[in-house]
């Protein structure tokens, strides 16, 4: 018997799961314990203290790390010094995650030196994106030299959404909605488009991420011009990439709109009826409907990308799994595309339903509406 430690280090959260692997057991690894900590300032330090208290440390033979940005790595990789330095260079492309993951990996190698550490990448799921999808309309020589293309993220979550079905025959639109949010179009089990791009910043707005914006906005946002917009070089302000990343990754999103990262609080304080100019003066209402608008934008686009041949719309992530109000709002809108109406009894009582995947549709002949309780650890 050997033990497997699965680690998911985020910018302010840490998830650890310990599995027991029994040879020739068809059911796969068995979960022994799991721990999740959120709203922390130092994931590596927390990891160190937790690991030291783990039972049977010497029996831990494998450590599996989630790494958000893997660059050109398309398969899991055994962690080596060369690997570590390569991922370190990519930290600027996923500043909220890669740095924390690398810190935990470094701590892991020190605390559990006899275990084999393996990295699994969110970007790997999107390795076969069509070239016209992954390519930006910029100078291609520069793009190739610097690796400037769409990579896509939340791949482990997307893969998890496919685990309980015949993934090779499934076309789905996967919505991973949480502090980080993305949409993905999947045809026959393969990603054909996704909302996140070179970094996790593009696409849907998140708790502190801006999502899609006009690329020039950051320069006007930081301008010292007293007018709305100005191109006067005398008052132009140089914006370093680190400052731009800080603003768009950490000072934007629905927190910038409402003052909170808690989408549940936004939902409770928002007017969820059809938005009007008056109701949108409420910052919580505005935040809710901005996120809804962007999600519907991608659902519509990916419905076309899949030529209407969609088997299911899948909700995952903290908001996708917990917000009955947001699922309802999406469901009402996509009913015009032939998706099944949401069964309110199931939608409201989701916590009482067992299983990794729950069908919240009415089984009225429309396309399925599913909620997937993703387990990126497994």
Instruction: Write down the overall mean pLDDT.
Output: 87
Taken as a percent bin, the fraction of beta residues is 15-25%
Number of strands: 12
Span of the ends, CA to CA: 18 Å
**Rough outline:** globular
The level of helicity is 25-40%
The low-confidence runs, each spanning 5 or more residues with pLDDT under 50, are none
Radius of gyration: 21 Å
Largest sheet: 6 strands, mixed
- Side-by-side strand order of the widest sheet: 3-2-1-4-6-5
Q: What's the SSE pattern?
A: EEEHEEHHEHHHEEEHHHHHEHHHEE
Helices, by number, come to: 14
**SSE-based structural type:** alpha/beta
Draw up the topology in text:
Blueprint: E1 2-9, E2 14-21, E3 30-37, H1 43-52, E4 60-67, E5 77-78, H2 81-89, H3 98-111, E6 116-121, H4 131-134, H5 140-146, H6 155-162, E7 172-176, E8 182-187, E9 190-194, H7 217-221, H8 241-250, H9 253-258, H10 263-269, H11 283-305, E10 312-316, H12 317-322, H13 324-334, H14 344-348, E11 357-359, E12 368-372
Parallel strand pairs: 1-4, 4-6, 7-10, 10-12
Antiparallel strand pairs: 1-2, 2-3, 5-6, 7-8, 8-9, 11-12
């Amino acid at each position: 018997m050997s033990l497997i430690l699965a680690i998911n280090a985020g910018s302010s959260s840490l998830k650890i799961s310990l599995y027991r692997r029994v040879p020739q057991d068809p059911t796969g690894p068995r979960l022994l314990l799991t721990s999740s900590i959120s709203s922390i300032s130092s994931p590596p330090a927390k990891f160190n203290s937790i690991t030291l208290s783990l039972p049977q440390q010497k029996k831990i033979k494998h450590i599996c790390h989630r790494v958000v940005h893997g660059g050109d790595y398309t398969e899991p990789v055994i962690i080596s010094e060369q690997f570590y330095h390569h991922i370190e260079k990519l930290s600027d492309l996923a500043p909220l995650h890669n740095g924390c993951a690398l810190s935990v990996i470094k701590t892991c190698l020190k605390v559990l030196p006899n275990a084999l550490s393996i990295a699994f990448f969110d970007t790997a799921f999107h390795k076969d994106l069509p070239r016209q999808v992954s390519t930006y309309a910029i100078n291609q020589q520069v793009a190739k030299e610097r690796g400037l293309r769409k990579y896509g993220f939340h791949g482990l979550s997307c893969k998890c959404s496919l685990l309980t079905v015949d993934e090779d025959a499934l076309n789905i639109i996967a919505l991973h909605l949480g502090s980080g949010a993305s949409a993905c179009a999947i045809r026959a089990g393969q990603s054909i488009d996704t909302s996140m791009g070179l970094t996790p910043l593009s696409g849907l707005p998140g708790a502190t991420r801006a999502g899609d914006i006009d690329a020039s906005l950051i320069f006007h946002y930081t301008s010292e011009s007293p007018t709305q917009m100005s191109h006067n070089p005398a008052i132009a302000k140089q914006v370093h990439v680190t400052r731009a990343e800080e603003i768009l990754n950490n000072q934007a999103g629905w927190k910038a709109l409402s003052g909170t990262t808690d989408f549940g609080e936004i939902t409770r304080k928002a007017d969820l009826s059809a938005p009007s100019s008056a109701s949108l003066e409420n910052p919580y209402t505005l935040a809710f409907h901005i996120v809804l608008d962007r999600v519907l934008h991608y659902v519509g686009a990916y419905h076309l990308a899949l030529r209407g041949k969609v088997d299911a719309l899948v909700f995952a992530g903290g908001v996708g799994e917990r917000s009955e109000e947001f699922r309802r709002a999406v469901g009402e809108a996509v009913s015009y595309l032939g998706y099944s109406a949401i069964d309110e009894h199931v939608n409201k009582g989701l916590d009482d339903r067992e299983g990794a995947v729950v069908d919240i549709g009415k089984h009225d002949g429309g396309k399925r509406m599913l909620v997937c309780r993703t387990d990126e650890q497994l």
